[in-house]
Amino acid sequence: MNFGLNLITRHTFILILLVCFLATQTAYAAKGAEGYKVQPGDVLAISVWKEEELQQEVIVRPDGGISFPLAGDLQAADKSITQITNEITKRLEKYIPDPVVSVSAQQLAGNKIYVIGQVTRPGEYQATSYLDVIQAISMAGGVTPFAAVNKIKILRRNEDGSLRVFHFKYAEVEKGDNLDQNMLLQSRDVVIVP
Question: If you placed Cys at 114, which of 66, 165, 180, 190 could pair as Cys (CB 3.0 to 4.6 Å)?
Fold first, then answer.
């Protein structure tokens, strides 16, 4: 009898993970169309074809800016690689006819999320792909037995510095209800498990 109950519980859990995975994949596809947004701490390789002195790696500063010869300072944070390439190309056209600019992400060190509180391994986590709340908690080793799983909060800073708070009720997601709350996290989001 107990074995049957455990088997049902496992199947329910697997079903919930499958539903979360499918919902996340749909969100990934929508987000992927926008492209990765560069974050402070990321390292970019920038080069201009046939211009050896215009090849370098730059780190995105904490203020989100980068500096590149002839292009000067420009804002890189929260822009796609394509947007940065276009901006540098536009600025270099004053000095170089038809510049061919290449920008690539060498290191995505700035795309971090934080999980704190009643999880096995609280801390800072490098997000190498888009993560949702369940995945972030899983990366942190899962919740402890003392966690208030229905009072989880996600903190997000807006561009103006104000703070947004999202509520997450783990028990609802576990039952397959209200799956929309298992949102995709953004760089610098903080997941608090009280």
Answer: 190
Buried b / exposed e over 67-94, threshold 16 CB at 10 Å, is ebeebeebebbebebebbbebbbebbee
Cβ–Cβ < 8 Å for 139, 185: no
Kind plus residue range of the DSSP H or E element containing 163: strand 163-168
State residue 127's pLDDT score: 83
The answer to whether domain 43-107 has CATH 3.20.20.70 is: no
With contact defined as beta carbons under 8 Å apart, do 70 and 91 qualify?
Answer: yes
Which residue has 């370098």 as its token pair? 56
The answer to whether 181 and 169 have CB atoms below 8 angstroms apart is yes
pTM given for the model: 0.66
Percentage of the chain exceeding pLDDT 70 = 82
* CATH node for 2-35+111-193: 3.10.560.10
